[in-house]
């Protein structure tokens, strides 16, 4: 893994087990431990697709549940990532996802680093707390990202979760060698 990360200035990481499937950027100098899944990718497009509703649904469906849903689920790279059918967008579609992903990261990072009157105490500024609260701006930025990802697949904007999973499975089956 160190060899794969060496040429990158940053990489994507997520925890193996989490209530919310969150991805973060880590710098090359950060060495993730065994409770972390690392993706040797430094592009905003991949970060955005991984953070999309489509990928979350796929990961929840192909990962393993610990106990009750509220306690979280386990992300397994061989079932959640390796089998996920990424969209094959045009360069414009790829850039739309990257733009939405950069905005998500910018707003999240800004929220976690907020200072001044009314700012949460530092100890309370975590991604888990942020996603538990789901402020309107976070819902909107995720909605924008999901819209870009659905467009990259060529799907309508108003698909429900079951339809998204059905389409992902169909893509997976057409892309998997017999």
Percent helix range: 40-55%
List unreliable stretches of 5+ residues.
none
> What percentage of the residues does DSSP assign to strands (E)?
5-15%
Distance between the termini: 30 Å
Overall shape: it is globular
Order of helices and strands: HEEEEHHEEHHHHH
Radius of gyration: 16 Å
- How many DSSP-defined strands? 6
Number of helices: 8
Biggest sheet, open or closed, and with what strands and sense? 3 strands, antiparallel
Please state the average pLDDT score: 90
Main-sheet strand order equals: 3-1-4
| Secondary structure category | mainly alpha
Domain count, please report it: 1
Q: How would you explain this protein's 3D organization?
A:
This protein is mostly helical. The protein has one domain. 49% of the residues lie in helices and 11% in strands. Strands 3-1-4 form a three-stranded antiparallel β-sheet, with no helix packed on it. A hairpin with a 7-residue loop joins strand 5 (64-65) and strand 6. Helix 3 (53-62) crosses helix 8 and helix 5 packs antiparallel against helix 7. The two termini are 30 Å apart.
Summarize the structure.
The chain has 178 residues and is mainly α.
Index terms:
mainly alpha, three-stranded antiparallel β-sheet, 49% helix, globular, 178 residues, single chain
How do the helices and strands line up, and which of them pair or pack?
Layout: H1 2-5, E1 10-15, E2 17-18, E3 24-27, E4 36-39, H2 44-50, H3 53-62, E5 64-65, E6 73-74, H4 77-81, H5 91-112, H6 127-133, H7 136-153, H8 161-175
Antiparallel strand pairs: 1-3, 1-4, 2-6, 5-6
Helix pairs in contact: 2-5, 3-8, 5-7
């Amino acid at each position: 893994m160190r060899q794969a990360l060496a040429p990158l200035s940053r990489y994507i990481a997520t925890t193996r087990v989490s209530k919310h499937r969150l991805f973060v950027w880590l710098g090359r100098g950060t060495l993730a431990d065994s409770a972390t899944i690392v993706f040797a990718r430094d592009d905003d497009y991949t970060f955005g697709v991984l953070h999309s509703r489509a990928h979350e649904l796929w990961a929840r469906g192909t990962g393993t549940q610990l106990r009750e849903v509220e306690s979280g689920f386990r992300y397994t790279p061989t079932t959640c990532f390796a089998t996920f059918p990424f969209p094959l967008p045009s360069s414009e579609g790829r850039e739309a996802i990257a733009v939405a992903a950069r905005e998500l990261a910018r707003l999240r990072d800004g929220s976690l680093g907020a200072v001044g009157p009314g700012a949460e105490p530092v100890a309370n500024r975590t991604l888990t707390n942020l996603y538990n609260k789901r402020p309107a701006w976070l819902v909107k930025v995720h909605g924008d990202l999901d819209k870009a990802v659905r467009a990259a697949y060529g799907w309508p904007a108003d698909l429900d979760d079951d339809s998204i999973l059905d389409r992902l499975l169909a893509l997976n089956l057409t892309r998997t060698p017999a």
